[in-house]
Amino acid sequence: MAELKYALYTGCTARESTPELLMSTLAVAKKLGIELVLLDEASCCGASHLQDFDDFLSLVLNARNICYAEKQGLNMVTICNTCQLNTVMTKERLDSDEDLKSQINEKLAEVGLEYKGTSSVRHFLYAIIDDYGLDKLAEKVEKPLDDFNIAAFYGCHNIRPSHLHRKHNSVEMDVGEGGGEEAFSKEPLMSKFNGSENPYNPSSLDKIIEALKGKSVDYESKNKCCGFHADLQAPHTAHKLTGTALLDAMDNDADMMVTPCPLCHLNMDVKQSAVAKEMGRDIKLPVLHLPQLIGLALGIDPKELGIQHNVTEPEFV
Amino acid sequence: MSSERITKKLTFKTFRFNAETDFLPYFKTYEMEVGKDELVLDILNRIKWEFDGSFSYRRSCRHGICGSCSIKVNGKPVLSCKQNVWELVDIFKTDTLLLEPQSKKRVVKDMIIDKKDFWSKHEKLKPYLVAEIDEHPKEEIKVSPHEAEQLLEADYCIQCGNCYYACPVVDVNEEYFGPAQFAKAYRFNADVRDNAKRERLEKVREMGPGVWDCVKCFECAEACPKDVDPIGKITKLHNQIFEEGLAQDNVATRHAVGFKHSIVKHGLLDEGELVRYSEGNLGVLKHMPEAIAMYKKGKIVMPWNMPKSEKLDEIKTLVKSSSKVKF
Fold first, then answer.
1. Assuming Cys at both sites, which of A243, B31, B175, B195 could form a disulfide with A279, CB separation 3.0 to 4.6 Å?
2. Separation CA B206–CA B202 (nearest Å)
3. Where in the sequence of chain B do the CATH 1.10.1060.10 domains occur?
């Protein structure tokens, strides 16, 4: 297998309020032999809020981030769903609109950069599944998670809008016209959605949990919203959404939750006591970042995975 | 070529409830052979025609334009007359599909719901052209192709309600206008003939009912059978609020603007400072319990340790030259 090497866009959260995400990502990559080059020049993606204020500025800043991956000839991976979405939204708009691209490049030229569109942008989760491979991951498991019921929480910005993620996040299987007449005339049905995530029935995290020999919990809220983006403006709404998902996982016997998004993680892990008040029920559920979960199964020292930074303590570690 | 019809034996677990006579809803299951070209609407018809004449649902045009036949299948909002059934089998990897109304708490009978709030919220945002019309015009009002394109296909909305009943904010905040309503407000705000843009923006900027309460989950964009992309229009309304100088000084607007302040200073977002700037020095106090819990776990970066992007000068230059909006 070719050496796997990516430019890692960490986003802000992994460098501030979720240091454990960056620690565990680097530890897992090292263990799997994946090389990650940190994009230290990158700025904030705007998290969809800068976009509400100044759309053009957010395009320039996100394009600049991608430039630094392109300069090194590397594909970019992200570890935050919202970074992923805002970066591919920018990429999609620039790649499909020459006029807009030249407006942005005019600005980037002021600092000697040019956006070309040569680097792909994917969440690290899909790089592990598609490039590294689930079978290989399963072989590396030293501490199978077979005592645990694990609730996968996908996070909106990796699954919706699906047309963007199908294009950028996944290696799409060629099924001709894509589930058209030909697909329907075959038995068994030739799937239109193989190899990519469906927002109404996502499966990537569940597949990873299975590869780590854990038991994935079937619950309704797995593809729902945690409310993070309205935390400050509409705390009651945000708390209700976070609480509904946490309680749904708990009511379906989850021992822990896992998420690929640090923003979901902040709501799910840090806010449990505030959310419990809103919901009128006790809430206690350890929430791990995806690389923390993978790292534990690979036998990496929990300290190296930053478990000590999780607010709701995973007592099983 | 063989003309043998390939079918699948499928089970439809169907929500049944009559608000006039039933104390509780229940489910009935119907099994049938389903061909590759059958739509969810065909199944609704077959349940009524082949199994139970009392089964109720809305339908009219059968061509994806009247917007009456929307329901949810396994939680996925579908316009029945456009949704192929085998595709759902493919998505959910199951031979049993759950047919439910768009919103269970609004059910009148079976698949039929009361859309009263959906319509009354539309009404509040003036979903029509507000203009001084000369009754005897000498020539037509001209709209250029470029101007017409600015509607961004918001006029494709058929008001099926898929986005509205998929929106998690609508579910927990009764006063929230909702994605279809915002898309409609944008549709008329973007119309060069319209005169009520500011009036609509004054409504959609309100905290609670307005656009600031959107959680950005993209459920609306995913649910729309016409690719109207309601959240894209919500973003446009946010932009219009700032562009028209109608942004009030509140936690939501400061939150959006705060990103720029942080980026120009650090490249990265200063999370603590964003919360302080958005909430104000007093408002920030309510976050203290969480802040203390986070501090104990090493999750708070102190101002003097705030990480900065490399080549911050570039970022400063770009923020200076590329900013288009003022607050």
1. A243
2. 7
3. 116-243
Phi-psi region of B218 (alpha: psi -120 to 50; beta: other; left: phi over 0): left
Interchain pair B289, A274: CB under 8 A: yes
Q: CATH 3.40.50.11810 region(s) of chain A?
A: 141-189+200-309
Residues from chain B contacting residue A62 (CB–CB below 8 Å): none
Chain A residue with Cα closest to B216: A229
Fold (CATH) for A141-189+200-309? Rossmann fold (3.40.50)
Q: Does B172 touch chain A (CB under 8 A)?
A: yes
Q: Domain B116-243 adopts which CATH fold?
A: Fumarate Reductase Iron-sulfur Protein; Chain B, domain 2 (1.10.1060)
C-beta separation of A60 from A107 below 8 A: yes
Where in chain B does DSSP place strands (E)? 7-16, 26-35, 70-73, 76-79, 96-100, 107-109, 112-113
Residues across chain B: 327
Q: Verify whether the Cβ–Cβ distance B238 to A52 is below 8 Å.
A: yes
* Cα separation values, B294 from A287, B19, B172, B290, Å: 15, 48, 28, 6
Q: How far is the alpha carbon of B304 from chain A, nearest alpha carbon, in Å?
A: 13
Residue B148 Cα, gap to closest chain A Cα (Å): 19
As a whole number of angstroms, the distance between CA B147 and CA B155 comes to 13
**CA dihedral sign, ordered A60, A62, A68, A73:** negative
| Sequential DSSP letters for B189-251 | HT-TT-S-HHHHHHHHTSTTTSGGG-----HHHHH-TT---HHHHHHHHHHHHHHTT---SSH
Amino acid at B40: V
**Which of the four pLDDT bands, split at 50, 70 and 90, describes residue A193?**
low
* Domain B7-113, CATH: 3.10.20.30
Instruction: Give the three-class secondary structure for B300.
Output: coil
**Alpha carbons B180 and B231: distance in angstroms, whole number:** 9
- Residue showing tokens 């200073």: B265
Nearest CA in chain A to B242: A53
Q: May I ask the CATH class of domain A4-124? A: mainly alpha
Q: Binning pLDDT at 50, 70 and 90, where does residue B5 land? A: confident
Nearest to A44 among B256, B269, B325 (CB): B269
Greatest alpha-carbon span in chain A: 57
- Estimate to the nearest angstrom the gap between the alpha carbon of A194 and the chain centroid: 19
Q: How far is A1 from chain B (nearest CA, A)?
A: 32
CA–CA separation, B183 and B1 (whole Å): 48
Q: B123-165, pLDDT tens digit by residue?
A: 999 999 999 988 899 998 899 999 999 999 999 999 999 999 9
- How far apart are the CA of A2 and the nearest CA of chain B, in angstroms? 30
Which residues in chain B are closer than 8 Å to A160, comparing Cβ atoms? 217-219, 221-222
| pTM flag (> 0.90) | yes
